[in-house]
Amino acid sequence: MNTDLIFDNTEIAFSLKTDSELERAYFLFKMISIEPLVRIGTVATNFAIKAHLPIEGLIRSTVFDHFCGGVNEEDCLSVIDKMYDKGVSSVLDYSVEGKENEKEFDSAKDKILKIIDFAKELNAIPIAVFKPTGFGRLSLYEKITKGDKLTVKEQSEWENVVNRFDAVCRKAKANDVAVLIDAEESWMQGAADSLVTQMMEKYNTEKPIVYNTLQMYRHDRLDFLKVEHKKAKIGKYFLGYKLVRGAYMEKENERAEEKGYKSPICKSKALTDENFNAGLRYILDNLDCMSVFAGTHNEDSSYLLMNLMKEKGLLNNDPRIWFGQLYGMSDHISFNLANKGYNVAKYIPFGPVKDVMPYLIRRAEENTSVAGQTGRELALLTKEKKRRKTL
Length: 391
Ligand SMILES: Cc1cc2nc3c(=O)[nH]c(=O)nc-3n(C[C@H](O)[C@H](O)[C@H](O)COP(=O)(O)OP(=O)(O)OC[C@H]3O[C@@H](n4cnc5c(N)ncnc54)[C@H](O)[C@@H]3O)c2cc1C
Fold this sequence. Notes:
It is a single chain. This protein has helices spanning 10-13, 19-32, 35-50, 56-67, 77-85, 102-121, 138-146, 152-175, 186-203, 221-235, 249-259, 269-285, 299-311, 331-339, 357-369, 373-389, and strands spanning 88-94, 127-130, 178-181, 210-215, 239-244, 290-295, 321-326, 344-350. With 391 residues, the protein is an alpha/beta fold. The longest helix is centred in the middle third of the chain and has 24 residues, at 152-175. The chain binds flavin-adenine dinucleotide. Flavin-adenine dinucleotide binds next to strand 4, helix 12 and strand 7.
């Protein structure tokens, strides 16, 4: 492991936080570390939103402002500027979820196109992102993934999905802005993967513009990467990958058990970690035609990537390598990496408060269930609070 441990510098990690923001973050992580509170809070919040109770202000001043940049892109600008001053770039993540009709899919596509235009003008936003289910129904992806025949209506719906992907990737290439395409549930991912490969073939001819996401908690992803590599060599295009561990583990395991098939998820956390790190190594060994965006809050994997870069004699800011974290989490990784000149970007979720609630609830649940992560945030915040008191 790297002897040059950098992530424990809390002065750099929290340099953008005022004392009161530090207190708020501490209070928030303390609250979400209490599992029953998150469960009750989730039910109560969902109820209050459905009943149109006036709780938006409360949500905004607590979880929303900590984990989101604002309700629209302009709202996020001050956060984007402040982070960029410290060398951390932004990926504007339109986090409205669960919309299921053509009008809403078109409006999500228009939103991403607008962000790519915005990004063209701002060095602080070198990368855009979208979710496949933001552009089409999950059940449609699922049907294609299963190999079922589509009805005529569904075929035309799918054409719309393809056209939305194409419009975004085309604009990304025209504006020289990379676009990350998130990965979701395994039962819909096959259709998304094929479509993203098509986009890579078409738009990654000179460099990686379109990035697929590999969820390395899936035991088949390393083989998938190798197969995609072979195809890209033959087709002479570049590959871009966001590497993550994966966010739908419980859902995946439950569904596999319910339906009686083998779970696509690695059997243990250690195996997921091994797989993630193997993915990093594979990409670093093939940088002639691949780029990586390592979306992780895991310190060991981040140090591993730094070490691999060092071993290969790469510059810290090699344009083929990015580190990524979510806004409101793991600032100790993001800001310390940026301070050493690495390419770092944080996903900044935004959208109307009630529409980003599913995203916020996932963050709260993740921080409750991911062993160690909340404890780590609290320990770092405590350290920084103490450091400031001694000044
Ligand atoms: C910038 C960014 C973009 C992201 N984009 C996506 C995306 O497109 N799609 C997506 O699904 N997720 C995405 N995520 C979320 C990500 O997949 C993880 O859920 C989250 O980052 C936690 O993993 P970690 O690498 O930070 O490390 P850790 O906290 O070390 O690992 C936690 C992860 O390990 C895995 N794990 C935990 N226990 C077990 C077990 N018993 N067996 C097997 N595996 C286990 C799970 O994937 C769990 O989330 C993104 C995260 C970031 C930071």
